[in-house]
Amino acid sequence: MRLPLAALLMVCGIAVPLVVSEFWTFIAIEVLVFALYASSFNLLLGYGGMLSFGHAAFFGVGGYATALLVKKGGLSVGLALVGAPLAAAAVATVIGYFCVRRSGIYFAMLTFACQMLLYTIALKASGLTGGDDGITGIRPTGILSNSIAYYYFTLFLVGMALYLMWRLVNSPFGYALRALRTNPGRLRYVGVPVRAHQWVTFVIAGGLAGLAGGLFALSIGSIFPSWLNWTASATPVVMAVLGGLHSFVGPMLGAAVYVILEVVISGHTEYWPLAMGCIILVLVLVLPEGLTGWRSLQARLRPFGGSGGR
Amino acid sequence: MLLFLISAGLSLIFGVSRILNFAHGVLFMLGAYLAVTIALLGPGTMTAYLAALIGGTAGLFVVGALIETGLLRRIYHAPHEFQLLLTFALVFIFGDVVKLLWGREDHSMAVPSLLTGATRGLGLTFPTYRLFLIVFGLLVAAVLWYLLQRTRWGIFVRAATMDRQMLSALGVNTHRLFTGVFAVGAGLAGLGGALAAPIVAVGPGLHVQVIIDAFVVVVIGGMGSVFGALVGSLLVGIVNAFGLLAFPSLAVVLTFALMAVILIVRPWGLFGSQE
Question: Using a CB-CB distance cutoff of 8 angstroms, which residues of chain A are in contact with residue B221?
Fold first, then answer.
């Protein structure tokens, strides 16, 4: 991402609530939250080559941590939100320890199993989590109850998180991570502790997803165990693939398109899942590089054309 | 036993094509819906019931063949995330299609009069239909065993789970084999759905739990192993039943914990072969 693009995104981000209605400000908050969520997923898959099918776990843990700290701990919103990435990162530390020992489809299944484990806990520990009814009534009070104020609050946090992530993927650590995706064996030979790298990435991605989950829980004021169910695990994957993996802005773009499409299509029909299914089919079969990779679609048609990925 | 029919299909498909078919649950659900619709021709009669079973199985066999040739075939060489997304897309699409075709309400199907009531034996009373399911499930297991172990097709399938490339190098038409396996797997799911239709509420949310249970079974039993699916479904059934008696709120947590532990220590499952 070049500097002008970053500046442009920032200006757009600041201008949004000044030009759109309160409803769309709310949608913009959702876009920001999911941009962070999808980017944290991309850190795993796009950069680290780890296909997590249980990333919703950390989003949910972050949401639950925030909700519980507000509801049971009586903490203010700002403090409760600190708990979200910490709790998610803590859970990711444990899960990641085991998961990085597996690769490919088994990695995906193990993350998936862990997510389902957390889902059933959220569902069954009803004394703590409210079971099926979830936790409601956790909207922020005071200045942040204003949706425009909450928008800027979210924009600031998501912007910071994405900036840190940008620094991370362009650091030596980030380069090692990318190399690891292409050729883990070779990286091991040159002395990079591959599993430790994957583990740290897993924890960071989990923590960032947790922050997104916490922000989202506060913006809609509630959380339900269905956030952790298996039907939720495709969301970050769809967003990231829609925008384009291996690209830093891709998942953000994907998240924005996904959220806006959902709002528009759900406004017209109750069959949003059907529409989404069709979109995924087109994506997988026709545009596997995502929206940011449309150029490589042409490149592929040329003999010896570039392969798109960075 | 119902769990076994679904898991066996899921396991076969994974073994041969290395695709984790999230859509297997909706295939089961489609089978149930088809059966319900066919059984309406003569509620409670044996002929309508048998027609429903055959219709559910055959219908899903065809659907499976169409999905494989039309969609899955294009992405065998794509990264895992695309394969998972594609089967997920099918979940969303079929989940809404049944709402469009059959409405949102739950449907039920009559048990044929021959199979209603209870059977006594060994000092126990047992619902006849459940007994029938057990016998039928074992029968299907035997047929599958015969198909896989004693026919040419079965040899190809087992070879494909071990080494696809070698098999195709030896001149076997793997395209047709993959289509066949997916269709059989889908047919098994359809049969499972049709058999389950009289004892479950056939509604749009039917697939959500089914696929998860089947995943647990397949992971425990070993992906690609039909025998593993049989043992796995018995194990999960027992864990569920005893867990419900002993500590109800922990039973489901326990099954996923079991799944995670197996993936950590023995990812190829109890009866699968190590890659």
Answer: none
The ipTM (two decimal places) reads: 0.85
Interface contact flag, B20 A109, Cβ < 8 Å:
yes
Does residue A87 have a pLDDT over 60?
A: yes
Phi, psi of A146 (to 5 degrees): -75, 130
A273 contacts on B by Cβ (under 8 Å): 92-93, 95-96
Domain boundaries, chain B: 2-206
> pLDDT digit string (tens) for B15-74?
888 888 999 999 999 999 999 999 888 777 888 888 999 999 999 999 999 999 988 888
Grouping H, G, I as helix, E, B as strand and the rest as coil, residue B104 is coil
pLDDT digits (tens, 9 = 90+) for B144-168: 999 988 898 888 888 888 888 888 8
Residue of A nearest to B210 (CA): A230
CA pair distance A217, A226, nearest whole angstrom? 13
User: How far apart, in whole angstroms, are the C-alpha atoms of residue A307 and residue A296?
Assistant: 7
Give the predicted TM-score (pTM) of the model. 0.88
Number of Cβ within a 10 Å radius of residue A21? 9
* Residues of B contacting chain A (CB within 8 angstroms): 18, 20, 22, 71, 74-75, 78-82, 84-86, 88-93, 95-97, 99-100, 208, 211-212, 215, 219, 249-250, 252-253, 256-257, 259-260, 263-264, 267
Q: Where are the domains of chain A?
A: 12-229
Q: Give the model confidence (pLDDT) of B180-212 as tens digits.
A: 999 999 999 999 999 998 888 888 888 888 888
B75 and A284 within 8 Å at the Cβ level: the answer is yes
Q: Strands, DSSP E only, in chain B?
A: 118-121, 124-127
Residue A305 has pLDDT above 50, yes or no: no
Angstroms from A142 CA to nearest CA on chain B: 39
Q: What pLDDT does A307 receive?
A: 42
Q: A-chain residues within 8 Å CB-CB of B97?
A: 274
